[in-house]
Structure prediction request, 700 residues.
Amino acid sequence: MAEVQKYYNPREEILRHRRQKENVQTQKRLHRQKAKHFHRMKAEIEPELKSVLSRIGKPEAADFVPDPFQTDALKAITKTDCLVSAPTGSGKTWIAQEAIAHTLANGGRCWYASPLKALSNAKWVEFGNIFGPEKVGILTGDTKENAEAPVIVGTTEILRNQLYDAMHTGEMLNCNLVILDEAHFLGDEDRGVVWEEVMIYLPARINMLLLSATIGNSGEIAGWLESIRNKRCVVIEETKRPVPLYPLFLHPSGRILPLLANRSLHGKVAAYIEKSGQSTRFRRLEPFDDILGVLKEVNLLPALFFLKSREECNAAVACCRRYAIREDKEPFEKELENYLEKHPFLKDHKQLWGLKKLRVGAHHGGQLPAWKFLVEHMMKSGYLDAVFATSTVAAGVNFPARTVVLFNSDRYNGHEFIPLDATAFHQMTGRAGRRGLDKIGFMVAFPGRFMDLYHIRSLLAKRPGRISSQIKNDFSMVLNLLLSHRPDEIRIIFEASLADFQPSRKRKPQSRSLWQEFNRYLAFLKQEGYVDDRYFLTEKGIWTSQLRLDQPILISQCVEEKVFPEQDPVLLAAVVAPFVYDRSQDIALAKTGIPKKLRRAYSQIIHAVKPVAERMENAGFEVSPLFPWPALAIYHWSRGLDWNLITRTLRIADGDLAMLVTRTADNLQQIASLADTHPKIASCAIEAKKRIMREPVLFE
Prediction:
């Protein structure tokens, strides 16, 4: 322990212990508070709900018969492009599966792109079981298996990069069908540009199938695609949920009422709001054990609880200690035991007792990938009563429950809390009701400081929101476009963007601002020697274009000046880590305590990038700070120190460290792509990636 702690500021350690002590005292106070209201909630049902709750049950088993929207979509995609907008759980994956089968039967090849590595991994296994593992490969930043298979599953970024390569070499992408799952990511503020690029660059000869539950302007998106691809895009819209949704209100007393009456708030709900101002007495800690007890008594479990933060999710599990223990043990305990034998690092997980004894779990970005997978699997298998999750679980993860419980009418968008929009709301409530297991699903709203029931009422009646273009320039995009296009051709590409197709409030084509921004990037690249006077990439520009990452210019500077260690993979992994951490959080370190070897290497990096970073800032480009603590974390991890020791000492969540490791690995993989021009650093990057990509980050 001392080996690591000596690298940290003693004052910070004192403050940390003080905060820990305060947290323990706070938790004791909260538990005392909870004990006062324990069993205060008594399950009662508003009489008019009895007929609704009587519908709870499993539908009769029947042979699968595809719905008309499914067969219509399959018929369309065999001939042209198709955009399918249908509720969560309605069977969009069946369309993709049958489209793949049809393509394979005709000797074709398919690419299935998803926004999440976890979802890609799940589809890889699923399609491998259906079509045979020899026919399905996977390409993500973490995994590359069977890359020549006729069916490739991967992240959308990898597909975009393959399109960059195809445009550069002039070779055709060897594919007949591209499936873009979770296509509403086209409107994602941070990653939507990747989806839009794929749609623009994809050759029209390749049919494109877009799948989503939440595209409110499907016709507009299809119209844009038709305008740039010169082929029909059939829109298939299904609004009927496979399992009907009934909204409920849970009174703090335990009484369950209908949330609505004739599209307005139920009279008793409105009266409660008027009297209490929508607040409850549970200011600090909601009585989650009481709530679970009520839901269990009226047969509304399993439930998915959406909470504001990771901390609330963890506290919710801790609050359930007095919740009734499930009696059924087989085959749950056997499956759990087998999983823990394969992943022994989870045997000491803080929330294992809750999963094992109470059948509840927390699922959020602060946890290890293997733990999140375990919670997902146990929930889907019907072993859990409840999962406490942040709203991010709503997108892309097959995580259904009988009931979805909402405590807030807002959500965190990565920067601030904003009111729930229709798209996020439908993603969340789409998890309520399991096809084939439930005749009816429920949304339960619980009052609180951050719950506006009038807003929830309005969202129930709204369609998913309209998707707007998020395309924007960045150095990686500009370099890769210049790799295969002249500037006048790039202007035509901008004119083909969704931004240019959609109406502009400024009453001028959005391609004009894109073009102006492109020229700003172009001028800087020319100034720095990446582009010559004829607007061709220089030798440096060509190899830098292969660095498809967040900060290619700074990484390129380090490669060019040879400040990256070429013989030490441990040190290389460490000094690459600060380039991938883009949050504002910093962890104070005692400068003299950092190992000399690392301190020297980090200082060389800072010295190398400082001049170009200043020129970038002067030119109006944002430059993320390079904090030293990610370098220290990855340094210790790459040289074999204990995972828990690192997370405890740095006070970083498991999931955050796992994310830092995987993103560092992604950047190392990009550096490894420079094998032709910089073989030494490329070889070292490959070894560095191997050192950091191990359990508990990687798991089977």
Observations:
- Residues 1-17, 30-38 have pLDDT under 50 and may be disordered.
- The first strand starts at residue 44 and ends at 45.
